[in-house]
């Protein structure tokens, strides 16, 4: 089940909106929406780049341009209750 429901995504978009500058690829047609919460693995020193070996992740909120598909990532820390 996705971490965020549609209402939570809409509230996040409104909260992020002051920081958003539209989409650089769609200056006249950006239609932004918040996607499902995702996480990027934290890389470790001494491990070849691109190989994730640990279990630490950076929680991220994707803001997706529905016009061209470009994604802007924002940290979910402080914006989403990650304990629920
Ligand atoms: Zn766009």
Please characterize this protein's 3D structure.
- The protein is an alpha+beta fold and 84 residues long.
- The chain has one domain (6-75).
- Helix content is 13%, strand content 25%.
- The protein has one helix and four strands; from the N terminus they run αββββ.
- It has one helix spanning 6-16; strands at 32-34, 38-41, 57-65, 71-75.
- Strands 1, 2, 3 and 4 form a four-stranded antiparallel sheet that branches.
- The longest helix has 11 residues, at 6-16.
- The radius of gyration is 15 Å and the shape is globular.
- The two termini are 13 Å apart.
- 7% of the residues are buried.
- The model has no long low-confidence stretch (mean pLDDT 89).
- Bound molecules: zinc ion.
Provide the residue-averaged pLDDT.
Answer: 89
Order of helices and strands: HEEEE
The amount of helix comes to 10-25%
Low-pLDDT residue spans? none
Straight-line distance between termini: 13 Å
Please report the number of helical segments: 1
Given the C-alpha coordinates, what overall shape results?
globular
The molecules bound to the chains, other than polymers, are:
zinc ion
Number of domains: 1
Largest sheet: 4 strands, antiparallel
- Count of individual beta strands: 4
Relative strand content: 25-35%
By helix and strand content, what is the structural category? alpha+beta
Over all CA atoms, what is the radius of gyration?
Answer: 15 Å
């Amino acid at each position: 089940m996705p971490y965020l429901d549609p209402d939570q995504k809409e509230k996040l978009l409104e909260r992020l909106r002051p920081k958003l500058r539209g989409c650089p690829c769609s200056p006249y047609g950006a239609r932004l929406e918040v996607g499902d919460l995702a996480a990027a693995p934290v890389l470790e020193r001494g491990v070849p780049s691109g190989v994730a070996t640990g279990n630490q992740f950076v929680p991220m909120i994707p803001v997706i341009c529905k016009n061209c598909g470009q994604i802007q990532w924002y940290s979910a820390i402080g914006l989403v209750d990650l304990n629920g």
